[in-house]
Batch of 2 targets.
Target 1
Amino acid sequence: MAKRFGLGHKVAELSSALAGKEIYFRSPPLDPELVRAVKAITPQFSLGTDETSRRVWELSQNGSSWAEYEALAPLFELMGEPGRVLEIGPGMGRSVVFLAKRMRWTTTRFDLYEADGEAQRYPLNAPRSQASFCGDLVQLRRVLEYNGVENYQIFDAAKTGFRLDGLPGPYDFVYSFYGVGFHWSLADFWEEIRGLMSPTAVAVFTVHHTFEEFPRLAATAHRYVPFRRVLAKDRPLNLLLISQSQELLDQAFAPRKTRK
Ligand SMILES: C[S@@+](CC[C@H](N)C(=O)[O-])C[C@H]1O[C@@H](n2cnc3c(N)ncnc32)[C@H](O)[C@@H]1O
């Protein structure tokens, strides 16, 4: 009997170039609680508790992380192991797992800013909201522990007044993949994030093609770096890198050509 699959439910829907790479993120066996949590964060997946679903989710999480890693590799080559990293909106933790294992950042402390919440109809570049969280802190912890990640702390945004500025920075690397900068306006968060960054820190955000620069961004060194997507049908997107060090961005990525 033909099985009805939702989008992102077949290995064939994934980019083979990305999904075929070494696996760092391991998905635990999917049970109804984890399926519900994944569905809330990534509604494009219609997963069950079967092994095919587990495998597709695992490959997709790895593939997405490989794509970002490959785009950022020139930067990672220059950066030493960061002391403290902040991830804003880690979802189910794919990036923490990937970076900790792939980069062998064994002493790095990962601070994760997330909150429990209901499934979202994701907006693009929308105003900051306290009601936008769709995480599940119990499942996030479960996935991190299943993957053997130890050096992390989860900061429940609901307990920080939904603000970032009370977090224990400074951070050497800050990122938000498909979160702040993509669904929610980076301009609304930037002053808080900037205040948490060490002088040589780099912040990285997934941005949509409709992303618009804001005045304070123009005053800070930044660079757009394209990356591939794990769903074969998806067009490439950009990562926006921001740093107080223009030199670091220029060293990692060739200096931008001036227009004639
Ligand atoms: C599309 S998911 C991305 C998850 C993960 N970064 C990934 O790429 O797999 C967006 C995440 O941002 C979180 N989020 C929602 N509102 C937020 C806010 N105001 N500040 C920070 N994170 C938020 C959600 O709870 C969710 O985990």
Note: The beta strands are 84-88, 109-114, 152-156, 171-176, 197-207, 221-227, 237-243.
Target 2
Amino acid sequence: MDWNTVVESRYSVRLYKEQPVEEEKLRKVLETGNKAPTAKNVQPHRIYVLKSEEALARIRSLTRCAFNAPVVLLVTANGNEEWHCVFDEGVVSGEEDAAIVSTYMMLEAAAQGLGTCWVNYFPHEEVKKAFGLPEEERPVLLMPIGYAAEESVPSPNHTKKRPLEELVKEL
Ligand SMILES: Cc1cc2nc3c(=O)[nH]c(=O)nc-3n(C[C@H](O)[C@H](O)[C@H](O)COP(=O)(O)O)c2cc1C
């Protein structure tokens, strides 16, 4: 799939087929994420692949936004490893790094014909406890992955874009 097709075909999928995700495709998604840049290349993100019945049941019990995806990635940022801005205390790279990695994975999934949704609607602390994450890790996002159901369509939000002129300023 060429770049334009990947970008144009991607939308947030919230209804999935029961069909499992092939291991090779999942591996490719994770490998592409591993090519993403991170601040000072510290790679402070961690990715938990939730795909056992037990893990899926647990995440679905904590948020409706895991949907019925056969795989859900839980992406975290490690507070002991992230980059700290030398100019401003408290400015750290963990969430940015996790987001860049996840964007790479999202687009690779689209290139593989897989649907995804970026999910922030979950109780971060409860998820941290439920999966026994180390104290220093902050959950950043969930990413359900799977084949879009036949009935799946983009939400009206997908095409609602503010004009570039409103968002971009030449200075
Ligand atoms: C940071 C972030 C958080 C999001 N959280 C959720 C969420 O919790 N649940 C959900 O269904 N969609 C979530 N979305 C998906 C957005 O609603 C969606 O990307 C947006 O409406 C544009 O639609 P599209 O992805 O189909 O183009 C999130 C997207 C981003 C970037």
Note: The chain has one domain: 19-149.
